[in-house]
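From the pipeline queue, job 12 of 40. The input is one protein chain; the requested action is below.

Action: predict structure.
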Amino acid sequence: MKPMNESHLAILRRHMVEMIAIHADLAGDEIGKAVLDERVMAAMRKVPRHLFVPEPLAPYAYQDRPLPIGFNKTISQPFIVALMTDLLSPQPSEKVLEVGTGLGYQTAILADLAGQVWSIEIVEEFAGVARDLLHQLGYTTVGIRVGDGSRGWREHAPFDKILVTAAADTTPAALLEQLKPGGRLVMPLGPEEMQRLTIIEKDGDGQTKVQELLPVRFSRLETVS
């Protein structure tokens, strides 16, 4: 069988977004809406997910499921990527911190929607691949470094929005510190068997409001002691 071309992949990408829309509708009661932001859906239609997975898995890139990328890590299910991005609501004027670059797929989605994205990855090999791939695809508003994401990126703080793509029992204090008043942080919180996708909003006085949504399962946020 001959390999898929760009036209085939574009059709599969559109189908992936249609499946995301169905999933959002079915989960509407849990997430508080039945339709995701069209800006997010447009980014999902645009970014070539097949380039952000190991080459043998490229034919499966547009199925609505996570895929392994090495080092016991996965690229998240497309619906979860779209949902977390929608909940974060990055705007063109905003600076976003991403914790957990992976191979850069979520980073690319954020870069299509925000003004500037700073992303931290603890696995050096991932960071190098993501940096090169995002550069090749023309993303000029992304900065990536290797490090402990739980510590944030103080040099570029404060951030309008923070997205964490790994789970922890509690929100790292450094990330809350580096979130602007009026800002929003989205991450999975809880022990492995009881993680919930969570929104943390910080008001003008620095007080936080927490909203728990649907159950999820992410790998744990790695830290360096």
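Job complete. Residues 6-215 form a domain with the Rossmann fold fold (CATH 3.40.50.150).
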